[in-house]
């Protein structure tokens, strides 16, 4: 561990003495923040309307869906923190007006989904499983599949 500390100290031009100092701790924190900013699943709202988004993903224990993530116009939000470890993630989003009604623009509803059903509900949620949604008191919504390949980060633009 001391070797790792010294290697990090060298990489940031701090005296490589292996001691844990305030400067070292600050540099480690900054390095972690920079890395976190570069990885994960970001959703960017490129519309003039408030958007709400939900994400779905597969785990060893089954599928999970969670939401709602508030995304102001011309803003980005990190929907999944940390490096993307799976190849596939799923998203659904909708832009709404001041009354919470889905916006219709250029003859289409501003909703972004696809052909992969996940469970949701109208309030904040984290739901395990994606089958029998209605039987369990949830709403079924078709999410869009994102193929990240092996990327640690991905940005989805809502346009």
Tell me what the structure shows.
The protein is of the alpha+beta class. The protein folds into two domains: 2-38, no CATH class; 40-158, no CATH class. It contains two helices and twelve strands; from the N terminus they run ααββββββββββββ. It has helices at 2-11, 22-38; strands at 40-45, 50-59, 62-71, 75-80, 88-96, 104-105, 108-109, 111-112, 116-120, 125-128, 139-147, 153-158. Strands 2, 3, 5, 8, 9, 10 and 11 form a seven-stranded antiparallel β-sheet that branches. A three-stranded mixed β-sheet has the order 4-1-12, with helices on one face. Strands 6-7 form a two-stranded antiparallel sheet. A hairpin with a 2-residue loop joins β2 (50-59) and β3. It is elongated and about 65 Å long. The mean pLDDT is 90. This is Peptidoglycan binding-like domain-containing protein. Pfam families: DUF1036.
- Count of runs of 4 or more consecutive helical residues: 2
Task: State the helicity in percent bands.
Answer: 10-25%
| Ends distance | 47 Å
Overall average pLDDT: 90
Keywords:
159 residues, alpha+beta, 7-stranded antiparallel sheet, 3-stranded mixed sheet, 12 strands
List the SSEs and their pairings.
Blueprint: H1 2-11, H2 22-38, E1 40-45, E2 50-59, E3 62-71, E4 75-80, E5 88-96, E6 104-105, E7 108-109, E8 111-112, E9 116-120, E10 125-128, E11 139-147, E12 153-158
């Amino acid at each position: 561990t001391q070797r790792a500390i010294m290697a990090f100290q060298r990489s940031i031009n701090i005296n490589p003495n292996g001691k844990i100092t305030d400067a070292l701790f600050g540099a480690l924190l900054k390095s972690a923040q920079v890395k976190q900013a570069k990885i994960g699943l970001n959703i960017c709202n490129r519309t003039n309307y408030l958007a709400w988004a939900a994400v779905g993903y597969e785990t060893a224990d089954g599928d999970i869906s969670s939401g709602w993530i508030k995304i102001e116009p011309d803003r980005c939000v990190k929907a999944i923190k940390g490096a993307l470890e799976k190849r596939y993630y799923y998203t659904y989003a909708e832009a709404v007006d001041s009354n919470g009604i889905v916006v219709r623009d250029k003859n289409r509803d501003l909703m972004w989904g696809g052909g992969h059903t996940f469970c949701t509900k109208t309030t904040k949620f984290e739901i395990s499983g994606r089958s029998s949604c209605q039987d369990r008191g949830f709403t079924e919504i078709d999410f869009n599949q994102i193929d990240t390949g092996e990327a640690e980060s991905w940005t989805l633009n809502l346009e």
